[in-house]
């Protein structure tokens, strides 16, 4: 595919707690908090940032500038990205491309979303819907019900997996049970309740086999990452231990299989498989090498088909992997230790960057309450219908594997004084000052947003 990409590293990450969309926190505050935390983690100021990428689906044009101007007004390029549910990881892919091909040495990516309660709705009804062809194919193959359209699409994929390979409704419910159980350890998760398999199965049926507890909620939230070059990292050798290499990455879109009249292909199986194969090949690893995965479980049915698409199991045997307990602690791979979209929440623009943050914490050894000991390779999968799938493979920059690190040592490393993987905290005005641009400041915006953010903690 042309020139070889130079190394790009995730040097800092940050995120807000994901919350119910009740309009109480504006996107400016969500983006500000996530961005400040990522810069604090990377031990940089906004003056170090060459380019900015803002990721969101719901909002007016240039919301990104409104968020970034709170860090300073340095006249750098700021890009606004909207790629459906894979928006955050698309921004991550853009940043990696900029760094790997010499356009920047330091890129700040901030994802945020302020959503309306309830299922996703179309806002532009006077023009063609971008997923209209997908909906038409669903209607022709499986019909249409009164359930939310996304639940129908993914529920139909689950039905096809049962018909073709022998999965049962209990297998999908078990995926949700595990993800809800994982979320108890994640302070950023929107929901932190655990449920029995029976409770998951008996919750309100949305679109068979999907019950309510197998569907992700709408959410408000923010997440951010700082992506840097080899040159930038070499100038800061004391940060090598916390830097995480983007060892392989691919953003893929749909192929002709989208219209092969398969409900599984209709929800992105083909592009997820394409992206995974390319990212794993670039990273020089096999699916069996992956220890931790954050994948796009907008519905339990999508986790099932994605396990298959990523090559984590033999084709058609994802449900056997679930039954064997091989997707959680003690199994072959830990999938969605954060709780996944099902329990952590799904603020569209922030989701891909939150997945990145989770895996970075694991590889550093900071996720002590949910750490997978010895993890040296992690994989992220983020999917957006319409469509785009981004798969990213991460390794530590120093080539070591993750080991649990005492929280006091973590505090010394990241200069935050706490472990962000296990504590959802705010920040002080002194910390904000460390990240501000010294070249130019939008004082009114900084003070206004800072006061609002501080009031939440």
UniProtKB/TrEMBL annotation:
Q: Name one GO molecular function term.
A: acyltransferase activity, transferring groups other than amino-acyl groups
Q: Mention one GO biological process in which this protein takes part, according to its record.
A: lipid transport
What are the record's GO terms for cellular component? peroxisome
Q: Where is the composition biased (Basic and acidic residues)?
A: 431-442
Q: What is its EC number?
A: 2.3.1.176
The biased composition feature labelled Polar residues covers 447-457
Signal peptide limits: none
Report if keyword Ligase is assigned.
Answer: no
Gene3D superfamilies recorded: 3.40.47.10
This protein's UniProt keywords: Lipid transport, Lipid-binding, Peroxisome, Potassium, Transferase, Transport
Q: Does the keyword Zinc apply?
A: no
Q: Under what name is this protein listed?
A: propanoyl-CoA C-acyltransferase
- Organism placement in taxonomy: Eukaryota, Fungi, Dikarya, Ascomycota, Pezizomycotina
């Amino acid at each position: 595919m042309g020139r070889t990409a130079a190394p790009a590293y995730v040097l800092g990450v940050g995120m807000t707690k994901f919350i119910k969309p009740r309009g109480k926190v504006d996107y400016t505050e969500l983006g500000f908090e996530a961005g400040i935390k990522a810069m604090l983690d990377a031990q940089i100021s906004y003056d170090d940032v060459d380019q900015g990428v803002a990721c969101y689906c719901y909002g007016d044009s240039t919301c990104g500038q409104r968020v970034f101007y709170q860090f300073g007004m340095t006249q750098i390029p700021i890009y606004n990205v909207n790629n459906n549910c894979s928006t955050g990881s698309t921004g991550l892919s853009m940043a990696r491309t900029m760094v790997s091909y010499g356009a920047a040495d330091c890129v700040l990516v901030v994802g945020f979303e302020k959503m309306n309660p309830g299922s996703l709705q179309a806002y532009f009804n006077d023009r063609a819907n971008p997923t209209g062809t997908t909906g038409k194919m669903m209607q022709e193959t499986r019909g249409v019900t009164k359930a939310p359209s996304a639940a129908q699409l993914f529920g139909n994929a689950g039905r096809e997996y049962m018909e073709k390979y022998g999965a049962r409704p209990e297998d999908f419910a078990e995926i949700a049970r595990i993800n809800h159980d994982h979320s108890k350890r994640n302070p950023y998760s929107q929901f932190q309740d655990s449920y029995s398999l029976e409770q998951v199965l008996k919750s309100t049926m949305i679109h068979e086999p999907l019950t309510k507890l197998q569907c992700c909620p709408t959410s408000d939230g923010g997440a951010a990452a700082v992506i840097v070059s080899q040159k930038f990292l070499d100038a800061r050798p004391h940060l090598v231990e916390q830097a995480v290499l983007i060892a392989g990455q691919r953003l893929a879109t749909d192929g002709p299989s989208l219209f092969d009249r398969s409900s599984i292909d209709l929800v992105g199986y083909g592009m997820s498989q394409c992206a995974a194969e390319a990212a794993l090949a670039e990273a020089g690893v096999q699916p069996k090498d992956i220890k931790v995965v954050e994948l796009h479980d907008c519905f339990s049915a999508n986790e099932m088909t994605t396990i298959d698409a990523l090559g984590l199991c033999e084709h058609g045997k994802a449900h056997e992997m679930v039954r064997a307990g091989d997707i959680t602690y003690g199994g072959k791979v830990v999938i969605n230790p954060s709780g996944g979209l099902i329990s952590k929440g799904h603020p569209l623009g922030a989701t891909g960057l939150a997945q990145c943050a989770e895996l970075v914490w694991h590889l550093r050894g900071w996720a002590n309450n949910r750490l997978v000991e010895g993890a040296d390779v992690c994989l992220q999968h983020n999917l957006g219908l319409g469509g785009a799938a981004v798969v990213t493979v991460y390794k530590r920059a120093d080539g070591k594997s993750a080991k649990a690190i005492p929280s006091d040592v973590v505090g010394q490393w990241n200069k935050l004084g706490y472990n962000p993987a296990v504590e959802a905290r705010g920040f002080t005005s002194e910390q904000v000052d460390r990240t501000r641009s010294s070249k130019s400041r939008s004082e009114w915006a900084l003070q206004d947003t800072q006061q609002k953010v501080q009031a939440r903690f």
